[in-house]
Amino acid sequence: MTEPVRVAITGAAGQISYSLAFRIAAGDMLGKDQPVILQLLEIPPAMDALKGVVMELNDCAFPLLAGIEATDNPEVAFKDADFALLVGARPRGPGMERADLLQANAAIFSVQGKALNDHASRDVRVLVVGNPANTNALIARENAPDLDHRQFTAMMRLDHNRALSQLAEKTGKSINTIDNMVVWGNHSATQYPDLHQCTVDGQPAMSLVDQAWYENDFIPTVQQRGAAIIKARGASSAASAASAAIDHMRDWALGSDGWVSMGIPSDGSYGVEPGIVYSYPVVCKNGDYEIVQDLEINAFSRERMKTTEDELRSERAAVEDLLG
Ligand SMILES: NC(=O)C1=CN([C@@H]2O[C@H](COP(=O)(O)OP(=O)(O)OC[C@H]3O[C@@H](n4cnc5c(N)ncnc54)[C@H](O)[C@@H]3O)[C@@H](O)[C@H]2O)C=CC1
Ligand SMILES: O=C([O-])CC(=O)C(=O)O
Asked: Which helix (H) or strand (E) element contains residue 8?
């Protein structure tokens, strides 16, 4: 029998986790032959609700679920964790931008970065979902000096999947026919979903759509999708966010089928300020990720990549005091 791995989830009694924890326990993230121990973190007022989640997880009788730890102590939740999904944070409501959550949520990620540094497996892979995800990942990482920067990533996969879905719908083709989708930058309204590298059924995507649809429909729809869901549902995306988190971690651990978008520490590729957590096209293999290099970037793309980079620089400046 394969040894179980430890998967920590924060905000475990929240909306996203209500989907996420069950899918991980079912084997959707790490495969149908990999047992998992779930280490669930909540804040004290939500511990009763978390008890209910644990009861339901048990009631599913998942064969791969080798244990559950429910706690309000980050040091316990992250102990020996191989994977950490940092979901717990306040979500935005109607009319807010994700950056409005910066002050409310930033402190959570400095505490959790320290706890990961001191207690997690030395190979822990961290995905930050709680918003504003990129800058929260930066805060967590800067508080974990003993871990490699590359172990801290932010979720851009929901944006990537939204872009795939919009393009599939527009072209009438299935998602499987689309390759080389890219979303650059911040998980915010400045993100830049880029179709210049993308193909549908082997044909350049930009030859299948007109520039007006690309600029005035596709880009803003993907950028504003989170707000559209909040307007429609009265609450932020939950099942689709959980699904994207599973995609992100699965690909990182087991390898991606082509390009995916991940928020990762910039190494200066494409002229982006080193250190900020910026979304790049990456290929995952052998448990690691590598930025897709040498793409041709036209003036239209360059301008948008810069706008979202500038936003990340100003978010970083706003939390300077929390950076370790
Ligand atoms: N990166 C992305 O693509 C997406 C990010 N999000 C973000 O994910 C976060 C969670 O969203 P939901 O699950 O819908 O919110 P929710 O409010 O339903 O759940 C959040 C949970 O986190 C818990 N929590 C708060 N502080 C905590 C702490 N210090 N430690 C552990 N748990 C803590 C709360 O008690 C609550 O149960 C929000 O910030 C939301 O904006 C949501 C969708 C997509
Ligand atoms: O929009 C929000 O606040 C939640 C989120 O990050 C998303 O759905 O992309």
From this structure: strand 5-10
